[in-house]
Amino acid sequence: MITGSLVALITPMLPDGAVDTEKLDDLIEFHINEGTHGIVAVGTTGESSTLTHEEHANVVRQVVKKVNGRVHVIAGTGANSTHEAIDLTTRAKEAGADACLLVTPYYNKPTQEGLYQHFKAIAEAVNIPQILYNVPGRTGCDMQNDTVLRLASVSNIVGIKDATGDLERGQALLEAVPADFAVYSGDDPTAVALMLLGGKGNISVTANVAPKAVAQAAEYAIAGEAEKAHSLDRSVSPLHKKLFLESNPIPVKWAASQLGLCHDGIRLPLTPLSEQYHAAVRQAMVEAGVLLV
What we know:
alpha/beta; TIM Barrel; 8 strands; 46% helix; amino-acid biosynthesis; 4-hydroxy-tetrahydrodipicolinate synthase
């Protein structure tokens, strides 16, 4: 089972929006050296919605090659078209990813039965471990716990990234799923609390700029060491809030650029962080100890 801090990795881009392959390699080394337990390549934080299929596949291949088995690689392969999701998942398997992360279809708002059939079809088409991803605040589509439980019986659907931030709902899910089905947090502010309830990890945005603290907090939380986990989490809590002043990944890419981890490149319709938020994000970075004054 994949556990721990799984960074929702940004896709570094040059100022003209081209994928920066050199910085991508550097980011991977940075995360491995800082103790990140796994890398999610081309998830939604990685701007999967603006990359072409070829770029998407190339980034996954590059991440797998550079990681070279040192940590787990999870490829984001979700789409609002089942056919497209199957294609992306097939490419990720061919690239050597350890698992795939599939966001619920956005905009078209399938029924719960439609969600079940969508994910079941992908799992049956591509024999690779698959992690569901529910983030209704971004997709306009909410996969209910009962649907997750139905999908948990599909052999290669092995977990879910729950980004609802609803701990009561998360606890109910944890109590209902099989022991070998992992529940991961996709909400940094509540991640430690969910892991202390039995969650297996945190697919984190904050980890892009504070990987060591997020990884250590995850280790403590999974081990049940609540005081140590909460203490570390408090140290980076300003980032949990300020990295969402504008739509993700706008603030986190700007923050990463301030650390020299990447250029401030991003693709339309996303735009660089508005100047009015620079001071707030920078202050959060200082308070979290990742940027010197």
